[in-house]
Amino acid sequence: MHAIRSLRRSVSAIDTLKSSASSSNLTRRLGLGDQLGDTAPQATFTIDDNSTDTINITKTGGQSIDGDDLALSVDGERVNESIGGGPWQTGERRQISSDSEFAGGEAVVRIIHDPSGNAIFERTWDFS
Predict the structure, then answer these.
(1) Res 103: pLDDT
(2) pLDDT above 90 (res 58)
(3) Three-state SS string across 37-106, please?
(4) Which of 5, 71, 83, 98 is the most exposed place for a label (fewest CB within 10 A)?
(5) Which helix (H) or strand (E) segment is 1 a member of?
(6) pTM of the predicted model, to two decimals?
(7) Are the C-beta atoms of 90 and 61 separated by less than 8 Å?
(8) Can you give the residue ranges of every domain in the chain?
(9) What are the φ and ψ backbone dihedral angles of 16, each rounded to 5 degrees?
(10) Alpha-carbon distance 128 to 122, whole Å?
């Protein structure tokens, strides 16, 4: 008798989950809303030029992005905590400084969107 009651409770719980299987309801019930809500913004960039310890990048399209949410990575190493400077608008050029000099030669440059953890820009750049 006890086993039958446990089985009925399990079936009831499964039916409840099935009836609320829409992604938003299920996400909310599982407590995953915060993790899934941080999607990377869509934007395009170009690298204009560099010196030994700075790189100039222009935002060429996409939505405005808060520079405080972005960091620059060169060959997998972050060169700063954030790009900063408030909202980065299309057409705006930012000069991003590094605490150390960039090594010469080719390197992979990434702009990382910290809230989502995603690279929103990636290019190989010759620092020679």
Answers:
(1) 87
(2) yes
(3) HCCCCCEEEEEEEECCCEEEEEEEEECCEEHHHEEEEECCEECCCCCCCCEECCCCEEEEECCCCCCCCE
(4) 5
(5) none
(6) 0.70
(7) yes
(8) 2-37, 43-126
(9) -65, -45
(10) 18
